[in-house]
Structures are given as C-alpha cells and as structure tokens.
Amino acid sequence: MEGGGFMIIGVPKEVKIRESRVACTPAGVRYLSDAGHRILVQNGAGEGSGFSDTAFRKAGAEVLSSAEKVWLADMIVKVKEPVASEYGYLRRGQVLFTFLHLAADPKLACHLVEKGVSAIAYETVVENGRLPLLVPMSEIAGRMSVMAGGFYLANHLGGNGTLLSGVPGVMPGKVTILGGGTAGMNAAMVAKGIGARVTILELDQEKMRYLGTVLGPQVQTLFSTRQHIAEELEDTDLLVGAVLVPGAAAPRLLDREMLRSMKRGAVFVDISIDQGGCSETSRPTSHENPVYSEEGVLHYCVTNMPGAYAKTSTEALTGNTLPYVKAIADMGVEKAVGAMPGLQAGLNTHKGVVTHKAVAASLGVEYGGISGTVS
Asked: Is 274 considered catalytic here?
C-alpha cells in the first residue's frame, strides 16, 4: 500500500538469539490503531520486554500465532534485521522498518534488493544532523559497555583482575574509548561515575571541546591517531570501540599488533560490531556466548547489546520510532520520505536498488534514487 491512508502493520517476534526487545509497545499499538491502522502482533512478541499478549489485545492489536501471517502485513516493524529464516517472508512492495546495518550484511542487502523491499534502517534516519533512532540504543550500549567490560575483568572470567573503580590506596583501572559520539560519551559517563581513569580518542575538535565541558577534567580527550591509540592501549584495562560512520562499515582502527601490546586479560567491548567492528580481530557474538579471546584480550562483540535490557530498550526505541511509523502508515513510503527528509536518509533499499550512498559504497554496488533508477 503506497498511497497511504490505511495500512496493516506487522510486529513479529524477534528470532535473533537472546533478543527480547519488541518493536512496538501496547501504548504504541493504541497510538497507531487510533489513527486508523490495523496492527498484527505475533504472540509472545512482547514477553521479554514485560508486555503480555493480553496487553496488546486491550490496546487494539490482533495477536496471531503465526509469524507467516504477521509478515503478510503491508509494513513490518522490527528491532533487529531479518535473519536467514525470515528471508522467505520478504516480498515486493513490502515496507520494512528496523535496524539493518547492511554494510556488514551484504547477503541481507541482496535479498532486500531482489525482493523489491522498501527497507528503512533506524540507524541511518537523520534529523538536524542527529541519528534520532540510533541515539537511545547507543546510550544504552555505551553505558552497558562499561558494566559488561568491568564484569569480564574478573579473574574467574578470564580478565586481568582489575576493579575499575579501584579502592583507597589502589589506583583505579583505565578505560580507553575510541569515538566520542553518543555511545562513547555514555561509556565515559559510567566509567567516570565509578571512578575509573578515562581517555576518549576522537577526531572532531569541537566534539572534544564539548566532551571536556560535559564530562569535566576527570575524562581526558586525545586526537585519534594510530600512534596515540597504540600509546594508550599499553596500560588500558577496558577498551571500548564506539566509532560510527552512518550507513558505512566501521573504520578498522585496531590490528593484531596493537592488541598484542595490551595487558593480558584486558577487555575489549566493540560496540561498533553491528557495522563490522573496529578491529581486525572483531567478530560477532551473542548474549549466549558473548566473549572470546584474541591476542590475550577478551573480546565482547555482541551485536544486540541493548537486548540484554529489553524493557528499557523497548520503551526508549518505541518512543522515538512511532512518529516515523505513523507517517509511513499515513502517507506511504514515498510521500513520507518527501514530507520527512530524515526518512530519506533512512531508506536503504527501494524498488530493487540500494538508495543510501554510504551503504552502496560499502557494499560495492550501484546507488539508486528513490524512483528506483540507478545513478
């Protein structure tokens, strides 16, 4: 349904390992159903976030037992990208609104293009230079990175035994953060709060000034170069990778040689793993098996970190996505993109072409406009 007016919106249960978030709350269902749209929710979709099927029904949703029936909706609203078992549900003319991270997932990109899906990625929607749908998840992932990293520094989990906060008479641990965006700043806030020594490496001078003002003198900022990174790594206990180029693969800032210089049992949390990771040693992990060791450094590379705190994440995400979901449902994709320029940056595939320049460049494919023509 491209013309807008009335749309059937499907909210399937997430199937990614240990993904407990849901893309819409009962309050969100009421908001959309009051606007005249029909909402299909798969049974059990909200349980991990604390929302029962009964709550969805009371809000006006139709709760269905079959994922296949939910995926027949005009627009599918999810949290995480479709996995291989869901590729068969994709079809021409369907709208998909979710986190996609296509630069790190060429197979999914190929399926979306082949099926002619209009796929809008939360992480590339832009408003006033900000990424409004990525921000809440980056805030959670950033804060969580220090919590998870500090946990895995324990000796019995393979860490070097450093308590990041230290104790009287003992120096606190050192946290080094690559990237001073939303995730990096939130990681620094938590690390600072527990008393760790904190350094953020960043390229943007204005951003460094802002971080200095907001975080104070306890957090040091440093211009990000290979030499500066290498120097900081030598005494780092927890390394947080928080670099982002919207739509594109994460820049590779670390190699094996650099990691070898770190203390044995140091921990590396790579938040940027959704976009391929910022180290040549990074590979995706899950909440079920979150860590592995490379070059004596524990790597935590969970691709859906905020899923560990599903209730908080779901509430934060839905509050930001709902206005966009309603706009697409009310007007259809092309009219909504025209009315809300931020959505145009969010549109990754449409009518069989890749419609985001950075995604196209990362995948090595031709870029096409919203009309479906390749340029």
From this structure: yes
- The encoded tokens of residue 183 equal 């995730």
Mean pLDDT value across residues 128-149: 95
Domains 8-124+309-363 and 135-303 share a fold: yes
Q: Which of 53, 74, 237, 274 is catalytic?
A: 274
- Burial (0-12, 13-18, 19+ Cβ within 10 Å), 38: middle
Active site residue 101: yes
Q: What is the pLDDT of residue 358?
A: 85
Return the CATH class of domain 135-303.
Answer: alpha beta
For residue 298, CA distances in Å to 43, 66, 157, 291, 293 come to: 37, 40, 9, 6, 4
Q: Position 332: which residue type?
A: G
Query: Which residue type occupies 79?
Result: V
Query: What percent of the chain has pLDDT above 90?
Result: 86
Domain 8-124+309-363 class? alpha beta
Selected catalytic residue, list 101, 111, 299, 356: 101
Residue labelled with tokens 């996505």? 321
Mean pLDDT (whole number) for 342-360? 91
Q: What is the pTM of this model?
A: 0.88
Q: Where along the chain do its domains lie?
A: 8-124+309-363, 135-303
pLDDT in tens, 184-225: 999 999 999 999 999 999 999 999 999 999 999 999 999 999
